[in-house]
Amino acid sequence: MDTQMTKSMLVFSGSVNPELAQEIAQELGIELGKVKLEKFANGEIYAKYEESVRGHDVFLVQSVAGVTIGSCMDVNDALMEVLIMADAAKRASARSITAVLAHYGYARQDRKAAPREPITAKLVADLLQVAGIDRVITLDLHASQIEGYFDIPVNNLSGMPVLIDAIKKKGFDPAELCIVSPDVGRAKEAKKMSSLMGTDLAIMHKDRPGHNKAEITALIGDVTGKICILNDDMVDTAGSACAAAKTLLDKGAKRVLMTSTHPVLSGPAFDRIKESCIEQLIVCNTIPVDPEKAEKSRIKVVSVAPLLARAIHEVYVCGSVASLFN
Predict the structure, then answer these.
(1) 206 in active site
(2) Less packed terminus of the chain by CB within 10 Å, N or C?
(3) Phi, psi of 147 (to 5 degrees)
(4) Per the confidence metrics, is the pTM higher than 0.90?
(5) What is the rounded distance in angstroms from the CA atom of residue 214 to the CA atom of residue 272?
(6) How do strand 255-263 and strand 281-284 relate by DSSP bridges?
């Protein structure tokens, strides 16, 4: 009997960011796939697909991050959940498995900065591949060299166009703006942003005496009378962001705003931002943010669902993901 193999797309959501997954599905014009995610009494994670995935291209939407709203998962549970979902899909004969990791956790440890330290970004890459994942789609990796830790395709998209659109809607005169990199490592991205917007550029130097601690030691560039836009890939406890904003005002800046792709926002972050001189923090919805806390802390959230949906579509139809960078 002749049979015709048909290719179809199935998108499933992990527990961390179901709202983003639902937005992506709407952009694609499909329904989210049905998957049962539970925990045993001892905390072990259970996953079961409630529809057939045999022969389908499966896309798993997850953020490897801790959240205190909704599912209240920590970063380790988030990672284990996507690994278990991938294993279940592989054993159910999925045609391909793509992990759509809006936020790639453990990326900050991308090298050995001191003796006897791990390289967790590489460890996570190995775990994803062993679990059966064939491709990773992600946003603004902490360091671009993390792509090289994989032996499978990685599409590292940029949230910059979404953030730039949010700034442009404010109607600022580009001549008044100055894009500021909070450290030397972010200088390349800040330069790209300033070039796209036609603004000035400044670079700060930051020392870290310990984890989640930062000291601003130098500023390269003139920010006098400027509306400064700090640009970073993530905001965690917000200590360095608030210190950078204060330094800019001390150096003569007129106003300070900030953009960041990943709102990790741990511990005292909301209170620090609320009490800081940062006029507004614009972030992407790669990690869920409590709306009430966001409003009180002058945080504006913009969606990357259309960007991720386009990337998923291009992968599915064997199109060009590179077109999303133009």
Answers:
(1) yes
(2) N
(3) -55, -35
(4) yes
(5) 14
(6) parallel
Per residue in 232-254, pLDDT tens? 999 999 998 999 999 999 999 99
How do residues 273-283 score in pLDDT, each as one tens digit? 999 999 999 99
Q: What is the pLDDT of residues 187-228, one digit of tens each?
A: 999 999 999 999 999 999 876 655 555 566 689 999 999 999
Is the separation of the CB atoms in 32 and 11 below 8 Å? yes
Tokens at 325, concatenated: 């960078």
H helices, E strands: number in the chain: 9, 14
Strand pairing category for 45-49 and 35-39: antiparallel
CA distances from 193 to 111, 229, 255 (A): 26, 10, 18
258 within 8 A of 230, measured Cβ to Cβ: yes
Q: What is the pLDDT of residue 322?
A: 87
Q: Which of 39, 206, 274, 300 is catalytic?
A: 206
3: phi > 0 → left, psi -120 to 50 → alpha, else beta; which? beta
User: Which secondary structure element, helix H or strand E, spans residue 89, and what is its range?
Assistant: helix 75-91
Do residues 98 and 137 lie in contact, with contact meaning Cβ atoms separated by under 8 Å? yes
3-state DSSP: the chain helix, strand, coil percent, rounded to 5?
35, 25, 40
